[in-house]
Amino acid sequence: MPSRVLKSVAILFALVSLSACGGGSGLFGRISPAATQERDPTAPASQPSAAGIETGDGQTIWDAFGKKNNEANVQVNRYIWAASLDVLGFMPVQSVDPFSGVIVFGYGTPPGGGKAYRATVYIQDPALDARSLNVALAGRGGPVAAGTQRAVEDAILNRARQMRIADGKL
């Protein structure tokens, strides 16, 4: 008999806990009459919608059981990425994030040069275009001249175009 009471209490506790996850009113998460009405677009996000009881972030409990897409969608141009690593290969790579398109280089001295530079490359578009590339170049004394920075960007874009032509996908 005591085990039957314990089972009943455990089941009741599980049902009450599950109903609390929905955020609805009443036992077992019944939807109130206000939840069945059409949602006001100016209302706060924590109000219930016609589709069911929502949490504050616009999701329901059933979203946890839905199919998830774990694939990351990388939106950087591979030729610009490879050309950046090639042209600035004299600098050590400190960090790379292909999902946001950022490559951070440490201080390095170019061949035939006497001054050390560091760079941050930001590739923000999958197109092979000048608007897709931003380079921040600095020396030990601070940012370099705009002409020097533009020359590095041009060298990266030229190398990316050469790689694309060599790849035969023009």
Describe the model.
- This protein is of the alpha+beta class.
- Helices cover 31% and strands 16% of the residues.
- It has a 5-stranded antiparallel β-sheet with strand order 1-2-3-4-5, covered by helices on one side.
- The model is unreliable at 24-37 and 46-52 (pLDDT under 50).
Mean pLDDT: 76
Q: Walk across the major sheet and give the strand order.
A: 1-2-3-4-5
SSE pattern, N- to C-terminal:
HHEEEEEH
Question: What's the shape?
Answer: elongated
Largest sheet, in brief, is: 5 strands, antiparallel
Number of strands: 5
Ranges with pLDDT <50 over ≥5 residues? 24-37, 46-52
Summary of the model, kept short:
By secondary structure, the chain is α+β, with helices and mostly antiparallel strands. The protein has helices at 2-22, 78-87, 146-167, and strands at 93-97, 102-108, 117-123, 133-139, 142-143.
Task: List its traits.
3 helices, 31% helix, elongated, 170 residues
Task: Give the SSE layout.
Elements (H helix, E strand, L loop, with lengths): L1 H21 L55 H10 L5 E5 L4 E7 L8 E7 L9 E7 L2 E2 L2 H22 L3
Antiparallel strand pairs: 1-2, 2-3, 3-4, 4-5
Helix pairs in contact: 2-3
